[in-house]
Amino acid sequence: MADKKVIVVFGVTGAQGGAVARALLADATFLVRGITRNPQQKAAQKLKKMGAEVVKADLEDAQSLEVALRGADGAFLVTDFWEHLSEEQEVAQGRRVADLAKQLALSYMVYSGLENIKQLTGGQLAVPHFDGKGRVEEYFQALGVPVTCIRVPSYFENFLTVFRPRKASDRDDYELALPMGNVPMDGMAVADLGPVVVTLMKEPEKYKGKTIGLSMDKLTVAEYAVLISKHTGKTIRDAKISLESYKMLGFPGAEELANMFRFYHMKPDRDVSLTQKLNPQARTFEEWITEQRTAFKNL
Ligand SMILES: NC(=O)c1ccc[n+]([C@@H]2O[C@H](COP(=O)([O-])OP(=O)(O)OC[C@H]3O[C@@H](n4cnc5c(N)ncnc54)[C@H](OP(=O)(O)O)[C@@H]3O)[C@@H](O)[C@H]2O)c1
């Protein structure tokens, strides 16, 4: 045990970090040090029981991060834009970890980034929850930290939450209101991210310096609707909502998400065969949805 390398996992009580920590624990090549602001919470305690070390630290507090990263060999970093909705805050958090990774000479990092859309589109389109992560990707690379940036597509799990089919106002069936027209949208189960990161951590030399767009399926909204209908017994249709109407839905983040969908129309680089190679057990949408019948029961 003493000779096992330590991997620090940020966001360990959340979707991405939780998946990564569980997969690293199951694989058992590395020791897992999970980071949370509140080690007493249930998700943190559960990971502790599974064998993770749980350390209290805050991405806002460099000193706590230094203690958390000291002695580690590598780290997985995800930052949460949605908690504060500030691009600058997300960039500052990411850079704080990048600076420490350099200072402490971590041998490898996996960073959950995304495209700097503002830069890619010459300022035409700004999507702060992507742009900030893109700036952090650039920062890691400029510092020369040995890093692989992964770009996670829309989680399949979003169909149970933010993209949940809604009851149609004038009918008995349900509608999927995602403004993608007939353009396919990439996705994967966030639960399947864990083994992807384990593969990277075990073969850093192969993937250092690369940026990898992940995806397990590229389906149109109509195709997602057909598969949800087929496996849940509910009738789901594509609401055929436009980007403009989506923007006007009025929930917090609607405009930000509408701009993200606009970017998705440009078909960002997401590589299904590489994702399958990194996690041969990762599920397609149909494989995932067959396991969700109960979750969709009370739509
Ligand atoms: N939803 C999607 O389809 C999708 C796709 C691609 C990328 N993303 C990106 O994924 C990110 C969110 O990741 P997630 O889904 O795993 O989030 P999540 O399930 O909401 O969990 C957020 C995690 O971040 C941690 N965290 C937040 N602020 C922190 C801070 N100041 N210091 C330390 N830890 C902090 C939380 O830890 P504690 O509360 O325990 O401290 C928690 O573990 C977002 O930035 C989003 O843009 C989402």
Q: What is the CATH C level class of the domain at 1-151, in words?
A: Alpha Beta
CATH architecture classification name of the domain at 1-151: 3-Layer(aba) Sandwich
CATH superfamily of the domain at 1-151: NAD(P)-binding Rossmann-like Domain
Q: Please give the order of strands in the largest beta sheet.
A: 3-2-1-4-5-6-11
- Radius of gyration (CA) equals 19 Å
The overall strand count is: 13
- Distinct small molecules: NADP nicotinamide-adenine-dinucleotide phosphate
Choose one word for the global shape: globular
Report the span from N to C terminus: 46 Å
Poorly predicted runs: none
Tally of individual helices: 14
Largest sheet: 7 strands, parallel
**Secondary-structure element pattern, one letter each:** EHEHEHEHEHHEEEEEHHEEHEHHHHH
Percentage of β-strand residues:
15-25%
The name of the CATH topology of the domain at 1-151 is: Rossmann fold
Average per-residue pLDDT, rounded, comes to 96
Helix proportion range: 40-55%
SS-based class: alpha/beta
Keywords: Cytoplasm, NADP, Nucleus
Family: Belongs to the NmrA-type oxidoreductase family.
Protein name: NmrA-like family domain-containing protein 1
InterPro entries: NAD(P)-bd_dom_sf, NmrA-like, NmrA-like_oxidored
Walk me through the structure.
Belongs to the NmrA-type oxidoreductase family. Keywords: Cytoplasm, NADP, Nucleus. Residues 4-289 form the NmrA-like domain. This is NmrA-like family domain-containing protein 1. The chain is of the alpha/beta class. It has a domain at 1-151: 3-Layer(aba) Sandwich (Rossmann fold). The protein has 14 helices and 13 strands. It has helices at 15-27, 42-50, 62-69, 87-103, 117-120, 128-143, 193-202, 204-207, 221-232, 243-247, 254-264, 272-278, 285-289, 293-297, and strands spanning 6-9, 31-36, 53-56, 74-77, 108-113, 147-151, 154-155, 166-167, 174-176, 185-188, 211-213, 217-219, 236-238. A seven-stranded parallel sheet has the order 3-2-1-4-5-6-11, sandwiched between helices. α1 packs across α7. It is globular. The protein binds NADP nicotinamide-adenine-dinucleotide phosphate. The site of NADP nicotinamide-adenine-dinucleotide phosphate has 25 residues, from α1, β2 and β7.
